[in-house]
Structure formats: structure tokens, C-alpha cells
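[Automated response] Your request has been received and processed.

Submitted sequence:
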Amino acid sequence: MFRKIALLFVLAALPLSGCKKVKDFANKELHKATPEPVAVVAAPAPVVPPGPKPAAPTPRPKPPINTHAEVVVLCYHRLEGRAGGINSIEPALFEKHMEEIKQSGVPVIPMQDFLAWRRGEKDIPAKAILITLDDGYVSEINVGVPILKKYGFPATFFVYLEYINKGGKSVSWAQLAELRDEGFEIGSHTVSHLDLRRKPAKFQGDHEAWLKDELERSKKAIEEQLGIRCSTIAYPFGNHNEKVQAATKAAGYEAAFTTYGARLGMTTNELTLGRYDVTAKMPGNQSAFNVAIAFSGMAAPSGGPVLAQDAAASMITEPMNGETVTNPQPAIKANLATMGELDAGTIVMRVSGLGLVSATYDAATSNISFTPPQPLKVGTYRVIIGAKSGGRPVETGWTFQFSPDGIAPAADPVPQATPAPAKKKKK
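Generated structure:
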């Protein structure tokens, strides 16, 4: 470096016409290659021994679930005109029903709570009510919604596609969007509100194609128009069979509702969830509404299919569930029409304490009956009806008490274990 600087001074001192040799020498010296810098190798980072792995987050414990809870579902249609008209009840009667529910103390729960309970994700009260309104009549909004809000009750509206935005008494998409925004549930009632078990003659394709369209197109339209997940459906007229159930499941519905009034449990078949049509009269001229909120109707069978159809023939029992009778030889009866097509010769009745009994079944009326030949003892009796439907077992039952004074007998005490004899001490 010092050598190069000295040469520069020399060159500067030379005249412009100086010796060319000196200049050439100086240029050679200046243009010698500069040596490459020596690479500095970084010292390796110190090896740090791995510490303990962070503990996995503790899973949140699942909430305790009451697996023995029961739910009844009420089904309404038009809230106008005279009570008892075609699917219609008076607005004043609808409000009376809501008032009676409030006074009963039985809570009304949202549909999503019911579904979450059945999935084991959320607990519900021991007894609960669902309110549903079918078809998409504008009176359900103009009359029903203000009353539902007054009592703080959630509800589910089942609408069919061909009746939306038709004017007159039908709801609009805009009104359904308002229902959604107010926290109400919207479910499917198919496209055309026809019996799903039979293809209409005007449809050119086969039954499977028509059924698929009825179930899937209505679901898709509701989801796209309202930006929601449509997870529930109500069968038109409550009509269904195994083919309809299979197609409903394939279409992606989580729950499907009939018009077979029954007390629903956690394991009731999700494709045959029964509802009480409040415009129907039960056998014995009882109000379906009264039977429902008293939880005195039949318990829905668990698991297997229930081919129930029309709420007008909903199962009712004698004695009623939970009733205390004073007759020591009561007629024990049930109407099995709502259980659907039962295999001939498979229907049996069992009564606790008596076993299999010789009940009489009338296929013309779907009634099964039995009268004990001997007086009953005071106590509680469980009646179980068993049968087969399509070769698969179905079963339901109810409980009643017998007491001559009409006062429900006290529950039988739990038998105490007999203590083991004391061992004698050896002498």
C-alpha cells in the first residue's frame, strides 16, 4: 500500500512529456491484483440442550348431560280464523297456549339447543318444549312473532319453497330474513309440500329423482337466500317411510319431524321426531296441546324406525302416562296407528308384575287392549308394547299407578341388603 502511494507522488512530479518507461512501470505496479480477503469463519453457536416440551392444553371437560330429559314439540300452522279450521287456530287461542306454557314452568328451548343436547354437547332441562310453525303463512309472523316475543319463546318456522314470495298469505324472503335476524330458526318443508312417499304424476322422472330434488333444492335455496345452515326438515303431512328417511339423511338433514305426538328422548330416531299438531283431537276428545304440555302421551321408542303418520291418530293410552286409577281391573289400551305399518302377528303387550299378557289387537282400528283378570295390587305398573316394523323391532311404553283412594302410592322402598351373619369367635 505504501509503495503504491509513493509511486503516485513520483508520477505527479514527472512532466507530461516524461519518460514513457517510468509511466509503464508505474502502471504495472498499480494494476497488480489485490489479494483476496481472508474469509472469517464464524464460531459455531453453543449447543443448548432442549428444554422440556410445553405441556399440552388440558381438554375442557364436557358438561354433564341429562340423558333422561324429555322434549315435546308443538306444531302450529295458520294463526287466523276459527279454532279447528283447516290447520288453523284463533290468535287468541295461540296466546292462551303460550300463557299456559309460561304458567306450567316448562321451558321452551331453541331448536339448536335440542340438537346440541342430542349430540351430547349441551344439557337441557329435564322437561322442555319446542315450538314449530309450518308452511310459511304470513299470519305466523304478523300474529305469532309478537306473541312469541312477549313470552320470550324461541321457535322454528318450516317453509316450503313454492309458497315463498307468492303474495297474499305467504311469507317473503325478506320476512324470513327478519326472522333469522331476530334469532328464529328456519327449516325446510320441501319444495312443493307433497306426500314424499309418492311421485306426482306430472313429474317425468322416477321417484328417486323427484324425492332428491324436493329435499335438496329446498335446503339449498334456504341456505343460499338466508346465509344459514338448514339442518332440519318437517315432512309434509308427517308422511314418510324408510325410503324417504334414507333420502332425507343423504340430503344432509340432522333432524326430521313428523306429526306423531310423542315424548322425545335423547336417542329417539332423528328421522322420526314426533310433534303434536295442536289442531288435532286425540282419542277420547282430548286436546293434543294439553296432552303435550302435561307430558302424558306416549314416549317415543328409542333407536329404530317409527313409521308414524298422522297426529289425528296420535297414540294415546288408557290409563294415561302417569295417571293414578282407582279401578283395580282397568282397561289397558293404546292406539297403535301412529306407529305405522307393523308386521302382522308381532304385536305384544307386557305389564310389569304380570309379564306377557293376552292382549287383543284390532287391525281395523289399530287398538290394542287388555283387562287384568285379577284385581291389581296397589302400586306402579309399566306397560310395554313391542312389535316389528319391516322386520325390525320397535317398542314403546308408559306407566300408571293403581290406588283405591286415587292417591298415587309412594315409591317402593329400595330393598336393603341382608347383612352377612356375624362370624362366631373361636374359643
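Summary generated for your ticket: The CA atoms of residues 110 and 154 lie 5 Å apart. DSSP finds nine helices and 18 strands in the chain.
If you did not submit this request, please reply to this message.
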